[in-house]
Automatic annotation (TrEMBL):
GO annotation terms (biological process): phosphorelay signal transduction system; regulation of DNA-templated transcription
Stored Pfam families: GerE, Response_reg
4-aspartylphosphate, modified sites: D54
Superkingdom of origin organism: Bacteria
SMART domains: HTH_LUXR, REC
PANTHER family hit by this protein: TRANSCRIPTIONAL REGULATORY PROTEIN NARL-RELATED, TWO-COMPONENT RESPONSE REGULATOR
Single GO MF annotation: DNA binding
SUPFAM superfamilies: C-terminal effector domain of the bipartite response regulators (SSF46894), CheY-like (SSF52172)
The protein's name in its UniProt record: DNA-binding response regulator, NarL/FixJ family, contains REC and HTH domains
C-alpha cells in the first residue's frame, strides 16, 4: 500500500484528490493539510511514501516544504509530487531544484495522477508530457550548469550509463531501454541504481534534468 499525504490550500482540491486517490486499491491517503507548515509537520510525523504538494500555500510554499522534505542533505527524504495550475512558472523550476520527483498540472486525468503517485513512490519520477520539452528547455536556459566534476559528464558516467541516460531523457521506460540496447531489464535497473547516486539525484526525473543541465543530451527545438 502506498501512503500519500495531500497538501493544498483549496478544500475542494484536497477533497477531490483524497477521493480520487483513496478509491485506488493500492493507494491510501494518510493525511491532508491546508498550508505548508502543517504539511511539513504531518510529513515528518506520518512518513508517507509520497507527498502531493501544491505550489502556493499559506505559511510556507510548496518549494520550501519540498526542500525540507527531500532537498540536499535530508537524511530520510520524502518523495514529492508537485501538482500545480501553473505551466512554465518559476515555482515549477524552483520545485525541481528543491528536489521534487515530478510534477503534473492539476487538470491531468485522474488515472494519470494516480499513476504519477505510483511512479514517484517507485523512484521513477514523472513529468507532465505536454510540458516536458517546454519545461526542460526553459529550465536549462534559466539555470547554470551544475559543477559535477572537473571531467564533466564523461568523468562521472560509464559509456553504458551515458547511453541509458540519453534514452531515459527521451522518455523511454526500462523495458524500452532494454530493447533498444538488447540487454535484460534487470541490467538496466542495475545501471540506474548505480547511476543515480553518482549524479547526486534520487529519481529518474532528476537524472534527466541533470542530463540536460550538463549537456549529455540536447534540448529539442520543437
Amino acid at each position: 500500500m502506498i501512503r500519500v499525504l495531500i497538501a493544498d490550500d483549496q478544500s475542494l482540491v484536497r477533497e477531490g484528490l483524497s477521493a480520487l486517490l483513496g478509491a485506488e486499491d493500492d493507494l491510501e491517503v494518510v493525511g491532508t493539510a491546508a498550508d505548508g507548515v502543517t504539511a511539513l509537520a504531518l510529513a515528518r510525523e506520518l512518513r508517507p511514501d509520497v507527498a502531493c504538494l501544491d505550489i502556493r500555500m499559506p505559511g510556507m510554499n510548496g518549494i520550501e516544504v519540498t526542500r525540507l522534505l527531500c532537498g540536499p542533505g535530508v537524511e530520510h527524504p520524502t518523495p514529492v509530487l508537485v501538482l500545480t495550475t501553473f505551466d512554465l512558472d518559476d515555482y515549477v523550476f524552483g520545485a525541481l531544484e528543491a528536489g521534487a520527483s515530478g510534477f503534473l498540472l492539476k487538470d491531468a486525468e485522474p488515472a494519470t495522477i494516480a499513476q504519477a503517485v505510483r511512479q514517484v513512490a517507485a523512484g521513477h519520477g514523472t513529468i507532465d508530457q505536454s510540458l516536458t520539452r517546454r519545461v526542460l528547455r526553459e529550465f536549462v536556459q534559466r539555470r547554470q550548469l551544475q559543477p559535477v566534476s572537473v571531467q564533466g559528464a564523461d568523468g562521472v558516467l560509464t559509456a553504458r550509463e551515458r547511453d541509458i541516460l540519453q534514452l531515459l531523457a527521451q522518455g523511454m521506460s526500462n523495458e524500452d531501454i532494454a530493447a533498444e540496447l538488447v540487454v535484460e531489464v534487470s541490467t538496466v535497473k542495475s545501471h540506474l541504481a548505480r547511476m543515480l547516486p553518482k549524479l547526486g539525484v534520487r529519481s529518474r526525473l532528476q537524472a534527466v534534468v541533470w542530463a540536460y543541465q550538463n549537456g549529455v543530451v540536447a534540448v529539442p527545438d520543437r
